[in-house]
From TrEMBL, chain A:
InterPro entries, alphabetized: ABC_transp_permease, BCAA_transport_permease
Name of protein: Branched-chain amino acid transport system permease protein
Any one GO CC term of the record: plasma membrane
Predominant location category: membrane
Family stated for the protein in its record: Belongs to the binding-protein-dependent transport system permease family. LivHM subfamily.
Source organism, top-level taxon: Bacteria
Keyword terms of this UniProt record: Amino-acid transport, Cell membrane, Membrane, Transmembrane, Transmembrane helix, Transport
MF terms in GO: transmembrane transporter activity
TrEMBL record, chain B:
Record-level GO cellular component terms: plasma membrane
Biological source species: Neptunomonas japonica JAMM 1380
Keyword Transmembrane helix: yes
GO MF terms, alphabetically ordered: branched-chain amino acid transmembrane transporter activity
TM regions (residue ranges): 6-25, 32-57, 77-96, 103-123, 150-167, 238-263, 275-295
Keywords (A to Z) from UniProt: Cell membrane, Membrane, Transmembrane, Transmembrane helix
Protein name: Branched-chain amino acid transport system permease protein
Top-level lineage group: Bacteria
InterPro entries listed in its UniProt record: ABC_transp_permease, LivM-like
Membrane topology per record: Multi-pass membrane protein
């Protein structure tokens, strides 16, 4: 057994890997939240339920339509994104001018309905989804065993996260988006269809959660409450990173996954609480979060 | 608050109610009504949406439950201890959260509540997933046997009336006026020289302590303290009760609590149990989209339009 200064390297890197995987999902989900919050000032409480929906959609697509993992990775985010578009258009837009707390409550209601429906249809025990053939197996590294699918999760979610960041921060489309949040009326005057932009952005943020759901299906069991527990952690991460900060969401998401993994190795009792503890400390030092601007 | 005929009739009804309805159900309604009123003190009168208020309900419950089981404390002291514990936790959590506004405040309170959820899940004295069971109700002041449901009911009613009175007193005091001023226009309240965060913090502590009082009482009624009371779903439920009944109204949270507990009780019996979440979610959506003033708020509007 490989040890270094009394530390079991296999155990340590194993937990680090688990942490990175969790962190990838945290990053994807908090990125979606940050985009939606940045543009619409809406906390999408349904984000967790939509992540769950993504996982179930992948499962059902395989069971009933024979749509495999790779196709699901494209189709499910599109379908889920479309659902987000409808949700924005018919539920959120009517209350867009009200206190933002109402949109939080509304999306919470949507989350309850979705979770209730899936519990009703599938019960609360988990279903399993097989790892795609191309990603079965793994590599034995000198200090750990790395399953291919897990490596794929980390790489794929990094690509999606960085791509999204690049699109928003570096392209013209992203500049429109950011300008639309700063001054919607001015953007309208320039001939940009802001309501459409808002709708599509909401759809994209939601699609990210759907994508995370498909990615998660083979590693976690697909169950109706898989979204509700991860959501609160993601909220804490969004607070730590600074709300609405795109880069903050990605970095904090991955970072907190690693922190969680390390805690699981050195002091497992605290592994569930460590992210919330970090949040308390960050709030005491920087109330606007690590990457947030003071409101 | 003036004692009107309306209030005397209500009190009379509350006194005879246990002879008509099952007392345990009524006690459940009263506990949740107090919880919702405490929550509404923040949401309705200061404009702060605390999305983690269940943590105070649960903390009161666990502290009372633990003390009642392990020390020979009388029920009123047990409840007092639970209330104080929740108030202290509220003092710490309030300090951390009231600096943030709106959605930020909601998320910070939610995440802080989740911190305690895991503490209660893992701490050695809380019974983990099982919670604390078989908590004795004890003898009130060492004399009155609370294992009798009727005695217990009047004790719970007295606690509820005390809490309800205290909230009313707070809302209608000069302190309450400042809270409403903060709700309506925070920069103006600041420019008038009020230290806004201190007022918010004080309101937070009162609300937390009263939520703890509700939780302690509930634990005694059901002789059970469990994770359900700390889970964030419970925080959502109290928001629903307040929203449905009418936030910012005095009786709204009571009506909302009665309706929600009534629906849950009605559905929990049979096949419909699975639908509870779906129906709660739909009520949320309909409330936000169609009637934000809630039941009591809408009735007040109708009364105002037609009778004055």
């Amino acid at each position: 057994m490989a040890t270094f200064m009394g530390i079991n390297l296999f155990g340590l890197f194993g937990q680090l890997l688990v942490g990175l995987i969790n962190g990838s999902f945290y990053a994807l989900l908090s990125l979606g939240l940050a985009i939606i919050f940045g543009l619409l000032k809406i906390i999408n409480f349904a984000q967790g339920a939509i992540y769950m929906l993504g996982a179930f959609a992948a499962y059902l697509a395989l069971q009933y339509f024979g749509i495999g993992y790779w196709a699901a990775l494209i189709v499910v985010p599109l379908v889920v994104g479309l659902l987000g578009v409808l949700m924005e258009r018919f539920l959120i837009r009517p209350i867009a001018n009200e206190d933002h707390l109402y949109s939080l409550l509304l999306t919470f209601g949507v989350a309850l309905v979705l979770q209730g429906m899936f519990t009703h249809m599938f019960g609360s025990s988990g279903l399993s989804y097989a790892i795609p053939d191309a990603l079965k197996g793994g590599n034995k590294l000198p200090f750990m065993y790395l399953p291919n699918y897990r490596a794929w999760i980390i790489v794929a979610s990094l690509i999606v996260c960085v791509g999204t960041w690049w699109m928003i921060e570096k392209t013209k489309l992203g500049a429109y988006l950011r300008a639309g949040t700063e001054n919607p009326a001015l953007m309208q005057a320039f001939g940009i269809n802001v309501p459409l932009m808002v709708t599509l952005t909401f759809g994209f943020g939601v699609a990210l959660a759907g994508f995370a759901g498909v990615m998660a299906a083979p590693v976690y069991s697909v169950s109706p409450d898989m979204g509700s527990n991860i959501l609160i952690v993601v909220f804490a991460i969004v607070v730590i990173g600074g709300m609405g900060s795109i880069g903050g969401a990605i970095i904090t998401g991955l970072g907190m996954g690693i922190v969680e993994g390390l805690t699981k190795y050195f002091y497992p009792e605290a592994s569930n609480t460590v992210i919330f503890l970090v949040m308390v400390i960050v709030l005491l030092i920087k109330p606007a979060g690590l990457f947030g601007k003071e409101a | 608050m003036k004692i009107s005929k309306f209030n005397i009739v209500l009190l009379g009804l509350a006194l005879v109610a246990p002879f008509v309805f099952y007392p345990v159900l009524l006690m459940k309604v009263l506990c949740f009504a107090l919880f919702a009123c405490a929550f509404n003190l923040l949401l309705g009168f200061v404009g702060l949406l605390s999305f983690g208020h269940a943590v105070f309900l649960g903390t009161g419950g666990y502290v009372t439950g633990y003390l009642m089981m392990n020390t020979g404390l009388t029920p009123e002291l047990g409840i007092l201890a639970g209330t104080v514990a929740s108030g202290l936790l509220g003092a710490i959590y309030g300090k951390l959260s009231v600096k943030r506004e709106g959605i930020y405040f909601a998320m910070v309170t939610l995440a802080l509540a989740q911190l305690m959820f895991f503490v209660f899940l893992q701490a050695p004295f809380t019974g983990g997933e099982d919670g604390l069971q078989g908590i004795p109700r004890g003898y009130l002041l060492g004399l009155i046997d609370l294992s009798d449901n009727l005695n217990m009911y009047y004790f719970v009613l007295a606690i509820f009336l005390f809490g309800f009175w205290l909230i009313n007193r707070t809302v209608h005091s000069p302190f309450g006026q400042i809270l409403k001023a903060i709700r309506d226009n925070e920069p103006r309240a600041t420019s008038l020289g009020y230290n806004v965060n201190d007022y918010k913090w004080a309101a937070f502590v009162i609300s937390a302590a009263l939520a703890g009082l509700a939780g302690s009482t509930k634990t005694l009624v059901f002789q059970l303290a469990s994770l359900t009371d700390v889970h964030w779903h419970m925080s959502g439920e109290v928001v629903l009760m307040t929203l449905l009944g009418g936030m910012g109204t005095i009786f709204g949270p009571v009506v909302g609590a009665a309706v929600v507990v009534g629906i849950q009780n009605f559905l929990s019996g049979g096949e419909l149990g699975n639908y509870v979440h779906i129906i709660m979610g739909l009520i949320f959506i309909v409330c936000v989209l169609a009637f934000r003033s809630g039941i009591v708020g809408e009735i007040q509007k109708v009364v105002k339009r037609n009778f004055s």
